[in-house]
Automatic annotation (TrEMBL):
Record flagged with keyword Glycosyltransferase: yes
Natural source organism: Thiothrix winogradskyi
Domain annotation Sucrose phosphatase-like: ranges: 477-714
Chain ranges of the Glycosyltransferase subfamily 4-like N-terminal domain: 33-228
UniProt xrefs under Gene3D superfamilies: 3.90.1070.10, Glycogen Phosphorylase B, HAD superfamily/HAD-like
Record key words, sorted: Glycosyltransferase, Transferase
Stored CDD domains: GT4_sucrose_synthase (cd03800)
Domain (Glycosyl transferase family) ranges: 251-415
Substrates-to-products reaction catalysed: beta-D-fructose 6-phosphate + UDP-alpha-D-glucose = sucrose 6(F)-phosphate + UDP + H(+)
InterPro entries per the UniProt record, alphabetical: Glyco_trans_1 (IPR001296), Glyco_trans_4-like_N (IPR028098), HAD-like_sf (IPR036412), HAD_sf (IPR023214), SPP-like_dom (IPR006380), SPS (IPR044161), Sucrose_P_synth_Pase-like_dom (IPR012821), SucroseP_synth_GlycoTrfase_dom (IPR012822)
Lineage top rank: taxon: Bacteria
Sample GO molecular function, one term: glycosyltransferase activity
Protein family membership: Belongs to the glycosyltransferase 1 family.
Annotated protein name in UniProt: sucrose-phosphate synthase
Amino acid sequence: MTPDDHQPYIVLLSIHGLIRGHNLELGRDADTGGQTKYLVELARALGANAQVGRVDLLTRRVDDPAVSADYAQPRETLSDNVQIVRIDCGEAGYIPKEQLWDSLDSFADSTLEYLKQQARLPDILHSHYADAGYVGVRLTSLLGIPLVHTGHSLGRSKRRQLLAAGHSKEALETRYHITRRIEAEETTLGVAERVITSTQQEVQEQYALYDHYRPEHMRVIPPGTDLQQFYPPQTDSPASPMQAELARFLTQPDKPMILALSRPDPRKNIVELVSAYGESPELQQLANLVIVAGNRDDIRDLDSGAQEVLSDILLTVDQYDLYGKVAYPKHHQAHDVPDLYRLAAASKGVFINPALTEPFGLTLIEAAASGLPIVATDDGGPTDIIGNCRNGYLINPLDRADMAAKLLQVLTSDQQAWETLAQQGLQGVRHHYSWQAHVEKYLAELRPLMARTEATAAAETPPPVTLKRRKQLHHDRALFSDLDQNLLGKPEALAPFLTALQDNRRCVLFGIATGRRLDAAIQLMKRHRIPLPDVLITSLGTEIYYAPNLFPDTAWERHIDHLWNPRIIRRVLDGLPGLEPQAKRDQSRFKISYFINPEIAPDLQQLNSLLHQEGQAVNVVQSFGQFLDIIPVRASKGLALRWVADQRDIPLERILAAGGSGADADMLRGNTLAVVVANRHHEELSELVQEGVNIFFATRPYADGILEAIEHYQFFQSCEVSA
């Protein structure tokens, strides 16, 4: 396969995973998923562009009886000018990517030999994932060919997720070689002349974690959508099996369909959608609601998060008596998904993504490509998608009335208006989110790099590779604040505080610790335009979530479940004078909440004594004279803060904690830097002064007081970083 001398020769590097041009084994294991599909579709789309001469997708050759013999073939032709080239890398058998690190130098040397055997060197090297980045850096250092990189998954983010899932730091090194991976990513980001990402949020929230963060070299080019798979309904299409599956739930299956498709994850906010539908008689009259939330045989066999979501869906259907109006099938296959979009489009329905946060929104693009108008959360990727496609409406995901109103706006529009939304979505996908559109933007970014390659080739001297590392590591200190008592109450003070945080975000981790539930906290932050913090501690420290995807810390949940028996606690406290249970919405798995009348209720010492007599070791928290919360003995805002500090390796002496009520007391005790702002010198914190705890009492209120504390402690000193 010889490239045309006047057309680009592009080499894609993807070392791990099982890659072939047909019957991709997506989901076979952790290494064979979306990345392999992305690579094959990108290679084919590049080869189909008339401006591209040749594309080689270089990967690892796998000779293993446990996998298909396809992966042992040295070459596989995808089209006239596109091929997969498989190069030996370490042992012949299939092994996880984490075990490849010691073989990457050998792979790089063999790849160098292969490239030198070609009629001419490639114009661009594009590495995918950290291991390919390591190889790409070696090759570009030797050949002077520009390196482009796509991370797909980043080690620093992965490290945080694995720690949150309960893996020890030692296990991360032994099993995942995480430090080695992160260092390879750092070097790759320092050398790569372009970094291709799917969303701006990746640039700002994930790549910004790295010392070699160079946003000026990063380009957002969303991946393409397979328009051969996702397309509008056709008049001659055969009946879909999903149609019969949905019909068994519905009294009037021919009504327009409101379709939601996601994992059964609390962050996907499906229960709020069912409630919005249940509270709108007009929606129920106009349309059926179809919830496709993963696959299940028995809800009780699923993990706790999925159990809770699916149970709440069923309970909410029952609460609003939505039987015959809501479908929630137990099973679906990947090939059923396009049919679901087309069924909804054929019914003149609408697709909705009500997630609390959505970094990209692939389902929205798939729905648009299927001729279906969309309604989506006003966070992250959907704002770009609807802005580009003009095929639907944004919603506040925690405002049921807004959700229902936007759905009605689509469903009650006349035929022409619905068709206009559908057609604008189809055109927008072709222009912005097809593989053809992706390749055109991609090549536009590569042309300046390839022009420099030609100039370098003429000079016959590869440019030296120089790395400029930032002076300051990311997040070497943290600032945690209560939400209601410190950040709100004075809007003119909030803006300068957020600006100061943004100016120092590369070295300061920002956390909010609140007694509110996750959804209530997010709703309040949206109302006051407070951006999502790096860490969100909710429900009095019983839940921890990490940005940008609100990833829950499941290890923390398992940790605080120790000695927790809510049934006994309720038996002891229910019916006591002066205690009234709060609404179910304000309770959670690890928080039992009451309103307390201190004049007639037992005091905290008596309550603790009653619980101890029943063998219950818990934290009893009273705040603002009227709220009483019982949480596990291992949980509190302060303990959650310390858990995060340990996970992130941030010394307590470099954490500024701002509190305002008794619930914040243990955030302020100990070795943290502490501040109580002027408006909240609350009597519940006066005992800390008597204990001699070193707390700075600000003279200014609300966020102004936190800024005063930042000045007092010189908290941002040495925090300036070079870009």
